[in-house]
TrEMBL record, chains A, B:
Gene giving rise to this polypeptide: hisI
Pathway annotation from the record: Amino-acid biosynthesis; L-histidine biosynthesis; L-histidine from 5-phospho-alpha-D-ribose 1-diphosphate: step 2/9; Amino-acid biosynthesis; L-histidine biosynthesis; L-histidine from 5-phospho-alpha-D-ribose 1-diphosphate: step 3/9
The protein, known as: Phosphoribosyl-AMP cyclohydrolase
Any one of the GO CC terms: cytoplasm
Upper classification of the organism: Bacteria, Pseudomonadati, Pseudomonadota, Gammaproteobacteria, Immundisolibacterales
The protein's Enzyme Commission number: 3.5.4.19
């Protein structure tokens, strides 16, 4: 395994949070998790590969939807426990709800209010059902 | 406690990752953690209040350094387990190393390389030592 993986402070589950930011718009698209294997694959393949905690396996973002994230930059924070990806979001949709990004709920008058549009119906993105790929 | 706190999917430690993004530049500044009390305080006070895992107490970002984060937007992601803050970073420095942001290491030829400048010496930010406030 390459050295750069040892510089990461993996948590007690062997994971690190990974933030994906759109290279063009600067919008923060989503946050997911990576283990050593996912980060190594992301660096090697140049596309975002996360660790799916719910399915217990590597998750190549877009493997079902086609909404792949091409990685332009891979960054680590000061204390080595968070990764930041700058990505080109294929299809312009990062969220399994069919929105551009996952952060579509804004705190407004003490409530989370969805204020961003669904660009594509989820059942056309994931015909076999599921979601979150 | 207000309702919006119940919509958050707190992890087994009662925490949620909180990403701070600069409202002006769009740069992702840092990632820290919040518990219920921290998120409630952030919403009530309009400044970023995190939970310091190392010190086991609330941490009003900038309480030592003056590098307070004024919150413009508070967002929650689709599955309720990550918060995104859009902030005005006072002093233009979010990182305890004296850099604009914590993500100053970029993966370059298989190594993490620091490619962002120290804007202010940490010992002038934290005269009493410490760091990370």
């Amino acid at each position: 395994m390459p050295d750069f993986l040892d510089a990461v402070r993996w948590d007690e589950r062997g994971l690190v949070p990974a933030i994906a930011q759109d290279a063009g718009t600067g919008r923060v698209l989503m946050m997911a998790w990576m283990n050593r294997e996912a980060l190594a694959a992301t660096a090697a393949e140049g596309i975002a590969v996360y660790w799916s905690r719910s399915r217990g396996r590597l998750w190549r973002k877009g493997e079902t939807s086609g909404h792949t994230q091409i990685v332009r930059e891979l960054r680590l924070d000061c204390d080595g426990d968070t990764v930041l990806l700058t990505v080109e979001q294929q299809g312009g949709i990062a969220c399994h709800t069919g929105r551009e990004r996952c952060f579509f709920q804004r705190l407004t008058d003490g409530q989370w209010v969805s204020d961003e549009l669904v660009l594509r119906a989820p059942n056309t993105i994931y015909p076999a059902g599921g979601g979150h790929e």
